[in-house]
Design a protein that fits this description.
single chain, mainly alpha, 9 helices, globular
Length: about 190
């Protein structure tokens, strides 16, 4: 149960990181995003490793869960750290940088949440365990609450064109139009 609490606490650190980035701008609190990610990894591994090593039954879903967990984890890392144009996102001196509206960010405003949920429920296929399933549900709920906070409060203050992005791009569930826009902008990159 402590591992589940630790993962939920990670989201509290994410909220504080966002709040700090807009209001306080305390240098020390900028590390809360990294610390939250680290706690989430530790919590997940604490729940996952014993299930994998103590499993005696031959679960036919394990290879499927492993495949999809790797796929969703790769998509999550790509979306959070590589899909954004680095120069525009992290190096411009604008007070309010423009938001990325291409690639996976044309699909929906928070594609990382889709990959996050897919990753955790794939882990549950790979290593069925009630505690891991509870963690997957709670972490997914925490993540959805976090993106609602970002969508309503953080990002409108952080990005100059966020209202336009909200009007053009679905919140979480992709549409046919947003899928076409995502594919079109990804093709232009290649």
């Amino acid at each position: 149960m402590f591992a589940i609490f630790l993962g939920c606490f990670a989201f509290f650190l994410f909220f504080l990181y966002d709040y700090n980035s807009i209001l306080w701008q305390n240098k020390w609190l900028r590390s809360f995003f990294f610390l939250g990610c680290l706690l989430l990894v530790i919590a997940t591994m604490t729940l996952l490793i014993p299930v994998i090593f103590n499993s005696n039954d031959n679960n036919w879903l394990t290879p499927i869960g492993l495949f999809f967990s790797i796929l969703f984890f790769g998509l999550l890392i790509y979306t959070l750290f590589f899909a954004l144009p680095f120069q525009k996102t992290y190096c411009q001196n604008n007070k309010k940088p423009e938001i990325c509206q291409t690639g996976v960010y044309a699909l929906c405003r928070h594609p990382g949440v889709l990959w996050f949920i897919g990753f955790y429920f794939s882990l549950c296929l790979m290593a069925p365990d009630p505690a891991l399933l509870l963690a997957a549900c709670l972490y997914s709920i925490c993540n959805i609450l976090y993106i609602i906070f970002q969508d309503k409060w953080t990002f409108p203050q952080q990005f100059s064109n966020y209202a336009d992005y909200q009007n053009k791009t679905p919140f979480l569930w992709p549409t046919g139009r947003s899928l076409r826009q995502c594919i079109c902008t990804l093709r232009k990159k290649v």
